[in-house]
């Protein structure tokens, strides 16, 4: 049963909308049958399985925004710290709305597990490398491969054997896939929307990185506080509230207070607007959610416009800022160099990835190997393969 916050009854959605966390329900079904746990629900078990996965631990060594620049600070977010922040927001949202909080938490914990090293720059480079071979890289679909195949922790089955609800949410939380284009995903009901617990994850992710990347960008001295205040209304509104509440506080503390208020405003608006969407369409059950005319997890129009403005500011002043160009170019060089080398000579791959070459081809096997690496691991591999060390690529596999 979903946990309900009785102090916010106006936010509670009809009970039949929430995903039911029971072993006999279709959403809790696993590809390989398992007996019920004596005291944990299926989605709670999924949370634990993701937390204990090797791929989850590797998120600690993967870029959120910064790569080498991030190494200069102990406080910049990694994929792991970002994931934990998304999980906190997702569980709060689900609890307040009367949805299934363990499912929302499991989806948040797994939502970035398919990202390669070097953040979005690394994902773009890997996708470009694969397109030469008629393939592409999609971190959602790679995450599905991780949890269904690559993770090997259980003697009874391959992968993590997660519930259908979590596997469906991995695929559909942030986008809708076309059934004709992706026949391999047919089991995931591509013609229907996912449960609300999954729909909330994409916006929880946006809210988390919007505020966190502003903080990290300011700490890295790439973003300027006066520019942030002048060009991001959502931040300035929160900053003004913080200044009114704490007139004696310095700019650094006011910035923290503003970011906290900004995050809270976004989360609260998402709760309220989602409840409004549900009620305006007469949504009463999960089946109604699946067949609704649109996704129901939304921000209000006024806040959505402010969110888009804030995101554009981050793209212009942080993600695509000239100071970041060298990092992006480095990510591209590292990934393309190693991708070419290992595709030309798959014998250099570890045995488990070599075993996939016959069935999936060298480009896919190499991409899977690279995608699993941390920033540090791939840097070490690349350094051993620079022109100063010709012929040393094989040694990189032992780093």
Structure description:
This protein is mostly helical and 399 residues long. The protein folds into two domains: 9-323, Hypothetical protein af1432 (Orthogonal Bundle); 330-396, no CATH class. 58% of the residues lie in helices and 0% in strands. The protein has helices at 42-51, 54-58, 79-97, 101-110, 119-131, 139-150, 164-172, 196-219, 225-231, 233-245, 251-280, 286-290, 301-319, 322-344, 351-360, 362-371, 375-383, 393-396. Helix 1 (42-51) runs parallel beside helix 4 (101-110). The chain is globular, with a radius of gyration of 22 Å.
What's this model, at a glance?
The chain is an all-alpha fold.
Oligomer category: single chain
Compute the separation of the termini in Å.
Answer: 47 Å
Q: Please name the CATH architecture of the largest domain.
A: Orthogonal Bundle
The overall pLDDT average reads 91
User: Strand percentage, roughly?
Assistant: under 5%
Number of helices: 18
The poorly predicted ranges are 1-6, 389-399
Largest sheet: none
What gyration radius follows from the Cα positions, in whole Å?
A: 22 Å
Helix/strand order, N-terminal first? HHHHHHHHHHHHHHHHHH
Could you name the CATH homologous superfamily of the largest domain? Hypothetical protein af1432
Structural class, from helix and strand content? Answer: mainly alpha
What's the β-strand tally? 0
CATH topology of the largest domain, what is it called? Hypothetical protein af1432
State the helical fraction. Answer: 55-70%
Number of domains: 2
Can you identify the CATH class of the largest domain? Mainly Alpha
Q: What is the approximate shape?
A: globular
